[in-house]
Task: inverse folding
């Protein structure tokens, strides 16, 4: 687990955004994995996931306060959380500013439709190169389609770990592209779901808000975050 923590991005959020913008500007391929306790717990049992998190071609950023707190416990200097939704919003800003193209893959069709409306009105210079909802059976075929389109940005909203595994599987076929697995971000950006109020975000309690809104998340939270902290304590 320590080896994975060593690979997580250590500088502040602004430095990360500069790196992201620069890569987008220069067409440098980049695969961002927003690592949270769930990602790390999955990698404990799943070799493919572990290989991905240790791969130098993958940029790991600390998502979730659990990662930042755990890092402190094992004397690893991680500054602050950099969340998937914040990265998604920044990419849309930069994509618009730099006249880039984007492919949206994942979430329900009605969410994708609203996403397109939001993008067209808020980010007029960002070209929507294509989109596919996340409920088509053959997701590999969708990636073959994305390869042909050659978009500059590829956001995949299928949830952990499916989104990361799919990107990783097909990454070699692309010469450029900023790839990010963004979980439920399309639901929020499209306006179908609300992000936690600022108060929760500031106090690092976004996870609590999501559980209060969707109580069925509590099992997932226990299996990832609580077991993760217990494991970190044991490893100290
Ligand atoms: N999703 C999908 N296809 C599936 C399963 C899920 O497109 O087969 C989408 C779902 O509609 C949602 C996203 O994946 O938009 C996952 O959201 P969730 O909030 O669970 O992700 P998290 O942010 O918690 O990782």
Result:
């Amino acid at each position: 687990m320590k080896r994975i923590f060593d690979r997580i991005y250590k500088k502040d959020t602004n430095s990360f955004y500069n790196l992201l913008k620069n890569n987008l500007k220069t067409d440098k391929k980049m695969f961002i994995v927003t690592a949270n306790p769930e990602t790390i717990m999955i990698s404990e049992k799943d070799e493919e996931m572990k290989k991905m998190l240790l791969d130098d071609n993958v940029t790991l950023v600390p998502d979730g306060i659990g990662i930042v707190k755990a890092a402190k416990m094992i004397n690893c200097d991680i500054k602050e959380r950099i969340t998937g939704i914040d990265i998604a919003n920044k990419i849309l800003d930069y994509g618009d500013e730099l006249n880039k193209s984007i492919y949206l893959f994942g979430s329900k069709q009605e969410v994708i439709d609203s996403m397109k409306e939001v993008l067209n009105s808020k980010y007029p210079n960002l070209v929507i190169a294509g989109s596919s909802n996340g409920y088509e059976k053959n997701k590999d075929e969708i990636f073959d389609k994305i390869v042909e389109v050659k978009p500059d940005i590829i956001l995949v909203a299928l949830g952990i770990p499916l989104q990361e595994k799919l990107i990783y599987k097909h990454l070699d076929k692309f010469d450029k592209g900023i790839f990010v697995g963004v979980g439920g971000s399309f639901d929020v950006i499209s306006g179908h779901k609300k992000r936690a109020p600022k108060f929760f975000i500031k106090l690092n309690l976004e996870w609590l808000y999501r559980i209060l809104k969707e109580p069925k998340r509590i099992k997932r939270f226990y299996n990832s975050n609580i077991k993760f902290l217990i494991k970190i304590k044991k490893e100290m």
